[in-house]
Fold these 2 entries.
Entry 1:
Amino acid sequence: MSAPIEHTGPVPSAAVLEPFSRGGGRALMLGHVHPDADVLGTLLALGLALEARDWSVVYGGPHPAPDLLAFLPGVDRYRRLESLEGPFDVVVLTDCPNPQRTEGLIDQAKRAGKVVVNIDHHPDNRRYGHVNWVDVTAAATGEMVYELLTALRVTLTPAIATNLFTAIHTDTGSFRYSNVTTRTFTIAAALVAAGARPELVSRSLYEQRAPDALHWLGEALARVEVSEDGQMGWLALPASAVPERIVESEELVNYPRSVASVRVACLLRELDGTVKVSLRGKGDVDVQQIAAQFGGGGHVNAAGCTVPGPLPEATRVVLAAVRRAVDGAARS
């Protein structure tokens, strides 16, 4: 292709629409590592819409979908991909600001696909596609995919609506983040009208605990710490401290965030010599800028990165960066 195309508006441009405008073809919906509802919901919604237009669609990424998201329509077709069998007429990545999160599959995708379309709302997106639609005003990438399907005149089935509603629900922290707008609720309402069931989504995400889950949750929450001034809360979780299924099914970082005085919350999770860091804020401290110091990214209220271990040293380094950000925001 020629020079990469970039579009930043809230509705798709003609260049964004063009790869999807044909009557049929072969598409790859490519996810990032440890896929969450933000990415799975958007990829599945778009893929199902294309299939209704006689496209053949492959769904997958470097890691399989978590059991928690088994309720998403079509997720049973999402596969762990070690290599790509092309060719593809279009490759789509959603809610993936950094192409390194595909663990090398993006390079194969560019060889196997005629056009790579990058759809995202993160301000630190690397613009790695042939077509890059990055709308930082969107509260969720699901809003953007909704606008894309609307522009393509796709009929919103209950399956498509459920996937998109779930993606928006999780990407906005259950509609709690400060970037949520009237547009977010207008789109959510349209998805409910199309068949999405908010009670099903909430029940599937938050009320499917195993009998021993509360015990392990208690084990994890016993490790929560809060700074003396109350502005930072964190949970440093050693490897194997709690089962992996508990970490996958619980938004542990939201517990220190729920403390009234906390402005930035951190979950530091030890994994094979590295530490995965999740950051959450309440709007007055940009946690994306904290994550960027360690090669990570995200947006104002939610971000993440990976830092070298061991866990005590990683905790010290990350909390020092959080402290600088908190103090800097207080002075500004």
Note: The chain is about 35% helix and 20% strand.
Entry 2:
Amino acid sequence: MSTLVRRLGLGDAIAIGIASMVGAGVFAVWGPAASSAGQWLLLSLAIAALVAWTNATSSAQLAAQYPSAGGTYVYGRERLGPWPGYLAGWSFVVGKTASAAAMAMVFSSYWAPAGWERIIAVAVVWVLVTINILGVTRTASAAKVLVGIALVGILVAVAVGWSSDGASSASFGWFATTPYGILQAAGLLFFAFAGYARIATMGEEVVDPERTIPRAISSALLVTLALYVVVGVTLLLRVGPAAIAGHPAPLRLLVGGRPWAEVVLAVGATAASAGALLGLLSGIGRTGLAMAREGDLPKWFDHTGKHHTPWRIELALGVLLTVIVLVADLRGAIGFSSFGVLLYYSVANCAAYTQDDAHRRHHKVWQVLGAALCLLLVVTLPVGSVLGGVIVLALGAAWRMAKYRIVERTR
């Protein structure tokens, strides 16, 4: 029997949403985005935030009507049909698995000894898989602690960066960019906002979901956006776009020469990455459970244990992440994740567009804008990420078609 229990309040849901976003945006994506957007980095951030807001309103509107595990996989099936729902779920699972691998790599990159980065990343994957298996309330409690530590590290870096001698003397040179580069950076930065989906995918475990989920999604997104704006402005004005683009961990440039601040930043970075990974594992597990219920993943995964968590999916995910962490690189994981998640939200916007007035909270223009922007950012992502995403999406579609042909032949 696969049963989930409503235990999460508004504060729990907000904490999981913020923890799922903060680790990605602040510590992993500024460098790749600055390489594409240069001095227009904040414009790319604004575009990414607009896309995130349109998607958030659609997700909140749908989650209020369908408060069950699975997020857009469920919404797509209910509003558009089995195939759109499946493609949304498949895009989410593969995209967020890549994102989870990225977060594990970021976690280890800030403090692991040279040569031990991947081993440490694998270890943290299994620690957090265990926490998720032990129950959703433990996940929420851990998320609150981790996001608190992360915010301390970020705020210390910003404060030191604005001090007279805190920032690095890195080059402030500006460089040319193009509208394509700005949009590509927006697509990469969107990777940093997608954590609010964790709230919707945990719809069966939230108390009073019709009210709690929309409020939690909006609150988590606004808090995270404010934080990103502060960090982005600080990096541009105190470090410069050229230095950001050329550095794997730009926030370190803000605390250069302050050993105590570097330690606080490293602790914050590891906590943020762990919090994001924790939220990602929860969301992937619940979407996988919903897909298994409908037969779009093996029925063996349609199971929850004594802690009311999809432990079989969590264990399988831990094995898959171990393989990815050992062979993948960070930039490729970010681009691949953005591809999958943007497609996922394009389905969410289309599904929300079909809702009737009784369940509508936002004008249809937001859903049209959101779907169009999602598809625009998808095609501007790095070519390798787009090609890899198309191949994996095609494999998922081929698997589903082959499965149902076999089922029809056996009838």
Note: Residues 259-293 form the longest helix (35 residues).
